[in-house]
Amino acid sequence: MGSITKKYSHLLLGYPPFSLFLTFITPFTPSGWGVINKSGNFIIKPDSVAIMPIDSNLFIIARRDESKTTMGLVNEEEEIIIPQTYKSIRPKNNYLEIEDHYRKIGVCKLNGRITVPVEYDYIKYLDNDLLVVSKDN
Questions:
Q1: 28, 36 Cβ separation under 8 angstroms
Q2: How far apart are the C-alpha atoms of 94 and 73, rounded to whole Å?
């Protein structure tokens, strides 16, 4: 375990990507969660209420604005992959399930391309990239 990992080990989120590559850790500062590299430099500024790594380059970030939390997806260069406008973003298989603030859900790829529009009430994931979707449940 490197010195940076030791320094922040009590702050690590328990997500599997850290056990796989330990390239990034997310320390909490008084201004929020951020992401640092092994050298200890912030690569995503510490202004999020939560950060969940998807892999060594992609991070779901959550920020709170008054009474509403919004989520988005950024890469290690802080480039926006999915705009920070969603109520929830959840990893599902090799995709991300996105939910808006009206409780409608859709699916997008890790590159941010929406493959199932955010207009459904229910999505069931089947084998072979098949989905069952439903509106107005």
A1: no
A2: 15
Contact predicate 11/28, CB 8 Å: yes
Q: How many residues does the structure list for the chain? A: 137
Are the beta carbons of 111 and 81 closer than 8 angstroms?
A: yes
Distance CA 74, CA 35 (A): 11
Q: Say what the pTM is.
A: 0.72
> pLDDT tens-digit profile of 59-82?
898 888 778 889 999 888 878 899
A 10 A CB-CB count for 124 gives 9
Specify whether the CB–CB gap between 100 and 115 falls below 8 A.
no
d(CA 132, CA 121): 11
